[in-house]
Design goal:
- Helix content is about 10%, strand content about 40%.
- The protein contains one helix and 19 strands.
- A four-stranded antiparallel sheet has the order 4-5-6-7, with no helix packed on it. A four-stranded antiparallel sheet has the order 8-9-10-11, with no helix packed on it.
- Strand 8 and strand 9 form a beta hairpin.
- It is globular.
Length: about 210
Amino acid sequence: MISQDPNQLHIFNPAIGSGAIVPLSKAPLSMSLSTDGLGAAVGFADSVALVNLSNATVEKTLPSQAPGRNVVLAAEWVHIVNSPGGSIRISDGTYVPVTIILGNSRGARLSADGKTIYSATEFSTYLQVYNVSTGPITAADGLFGITSICTPFSLSSDKTRVHTGCNIQEFISAQPGIRYVSSLFSDTRARVRGVAESAKAAGRHIGSLLHRAG
C-alpha cells in the first residue's frame, strides 16, 4: 500500500503479522506488484521506483517521460498505462513511448503469462486489452464492452476473472470471449444488508459456542 504525506510504501505480511515501511522520495501515484510478490514498482510524476519487498529497500529508480499514474510491473519491463504512456526496460532504463492512443486508465493488471495488460478505461463499461508479448506495449488487441468496470479492480489469483468495485466478475481467459459472469450484490443497500446479516450470523454462532462452553 502507498501513501502520500508521508510518502511511503507500507508492507504487511499477514502470515506472520509483521510489517515494514519504505520511505519514498516523492509523492507516489500508483503501485504494481511483481508476479512473484517479491517486488513492486511505484509510479511518480517523472519516474518509477523498483522496491525489493523482502528487505524493504528501493533498489532502482528509472526516469520516465510519462507520469506513472498507472504502472504495471512485468519481468523485464515497467509499463505506464495512461495517456501519455509507454514502457521502461528495467535493465537499462530505455523508454519506449506507445505508438497507440491510450485512454485514461482507471487501473491496469498483467495477465498470468505476462503477455497481456487488461486496463479499465475512462469509459466505465470498457475493458482495454494491450499486447506486451514482445516487451513494450505494441498494440491494442481490443476494446471490450462489458457490463461494468469500476475501480478498484483486480484479477483473480488464476488471472481468469476481473473483480471490480461494482462486485462484477468478467471471464477473460479466452479472448475475444470476454463475457459477464456474475454480480455478487445488486446495489449498495444489498451489500450493506448482506454484511450485516453475515455479522449477525457470526455473532449468533459465537454466542452459541459461549453458551455451550458455559
